[in-house]
Amino acid sequence: MCTLEKRGDVFLLTLTGDNEHRLNPSMINKIRTALHQVRTHAKPGSVLITTAEGKFFCNGLDLAWARAAKSGLRHDCLDRLHLMVNEFRIVVADLISLPLPTIATVTAHAAAAGLMLAISHDYVLMRKDRGVLYMSELDVGTTFPDYFMELMRSKIVLPGARRNVVLRAAKIKPMEALEMGIIDSVHESSAETSEAALRLGDELGSRKWNGEVYSEIRKSSFPELCKVIGLIHKEVFAAKL
Predict the structure, then answer these.
(1) pTM for the complete prediction?
(2) 19-42: per-residue pLDDT in tens?
(3) Distance CA 194, CA 51 (A)
């Protein structure tokens, strides 16, 4: 489902397999386990890059898993959906509180919770010729979890861009996403996107920032989001006074 490897100071988290990388409890748990390892072993200069194999970066929560409740009753299916929503909230909190810079390499489609996974990183890079960003909730017929909306308010700052994402369910191509300020750069191929992510990772890592300071500054940049996902900001003085 996912692998974690270390290349120098770069942690590379890869969603594996040629599938949709749907976020069910098993997948969420594996991502959380990987992020815990990153948090445990991070040091000044560490960077996380998240990427995925296949034609999807991540296609959101696993609705098929929700529908597969043994009873088949609607309330049991909804219970499963709420379980995934609540568990994925912790993944977002994990990413927002990680003590190192984070980069999402999106070389394929990112939809719904998959887009939330991408923009929970500090930087998002996309492949030019493949993949769209898409919040499907309006088309599916469901409202957004509170932390989805707060994450989008925090990361998609242009009102017109956010309207197109949430109230038009637009399928946004890479160059459009760049113009809307949702992502940071666009690259010609999957390989070039990955190479650009590694270059950015090396650049950020070379600064050797204190991870706790980095994490707290990130959290203080998104105070409303942190309230919703249960993170508390604290002051850190790592400098020698």
Answers:
(1) 0.96
(2) 999 999 999 999 999 999 999 999
(3) 8
